[in-house]
Amino acid sequence: MQSFDARFVAACDAERALLERLASLLADEQRALLRLDGAPLIAIARDKEALLAELAEQGKERRLLCRDAALTTPDDIARWLPAQDAAVRDAWLRLETALMRARTLNDANAQTSRERATMAESLLSEIRDTLRREAGYDRSGAQATPAGSGRKLGSA
């Protein structure tokens, strides 16, 4: 049977690999959001959901190892980690770094998404208002009285 250290390093590395895939997917999402390209966002959302489920499943192994070693809080890990092998410390650091990168990208994407949604709603509202005015109807839907002679451009 593998040692605790070897199992812990393997679990951290497997979880980190998934987090790196997630970060790559989030970077793709960010590019699509910035381009206002909605088509790839649907596929990315589906891939992200599947990857998050896989990540949750993979994370169980590391969490069980930590629980069995009485490492149930971040403070427990912070006290335990300095006394561990370099391989264990490095695996944990790589995992934390990958997690921070994915969180940062996700937070940025959420902010960009909110900004883009607000911008789109504002633009749609402005377009609707313009179309209503151009069509000769007021906000209540009644026929507006045209200003001036009532003739449209191009009429004889």
TrEMBL record:
Pfam families: FlgN
Domain of life according to the entry: Bacteria
Stated name of the protein: Flagellar protein FlgN
Keyword field: Bacterial flagellum biogenesis, Cell projection, Cilium, Flagellum
Function of the protein: Required for the efficient initiation of filament assembly.
Gene Ontology terms: biological process: bacterial-type flagellum assembly
Gene3D superfamilies: FlgN-like (1.20.58.300)
Coiled coil regions in record: none
Acyltransferase keyword on record: no
Family: Belongs to the FlgN family.
Source organism of this protein record: Crenobacter intestini
Positions of the UniProt region annotated as Disordered: 134-156
